[in-house]
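Tokens in:
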């Protein structure tokens, strides 16, 4: 079993803004630079990065937490992980706590490096506009 991916990132914005950046298809697409389809329905399916990521919403606590069944489409059939994003207010802005469990060993390093590369740095640039 691979280790859990844990990352904590701070931005100069509100938890609500970060929550919306992830869960609103249009903002998600704009902030990452890649097409996505995502929604707020429990059990609703999503796709991100022009279909390279897919999954299903398991739990949504508005403005506070998102839990998803999550996978990269190049993973072996049947390989899934659980993604937990928690949004909170901190001094000077907002924080995202990411916990990503069950990422297959063959893509663990790629996913761990992918969060900053494909989300955190692009989000930082998007928020500076």
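Residues out:
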């Amino acid at each position: 079993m691979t280790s859990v991916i844990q990352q904590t990132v701070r931005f100069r914005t509100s938890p609500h803004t970060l929550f919306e950046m992830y869960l609103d298809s249009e903002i998600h697409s704009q902030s990452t630079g890649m097409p996505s389809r995502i929604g707020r329905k429990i059990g609703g399916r999503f796709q991100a990065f022009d279909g390279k990521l897919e999954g299903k919403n398991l739990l949504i606590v508005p403005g506070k937490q998102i839990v998803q069944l999550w996978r990269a489409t190049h993973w072996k059939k049947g390989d899934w992980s659980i993604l937990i994003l928690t949004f909170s207010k901190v001094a000077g802005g907002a924080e995202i706590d990411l916990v990503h469990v069950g990422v297959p060993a063959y893509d663990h390093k790629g996913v761990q490096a992918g969060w900053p590369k494909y989300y955190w740095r692009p989000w930082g640039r998007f928020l500076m506009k």
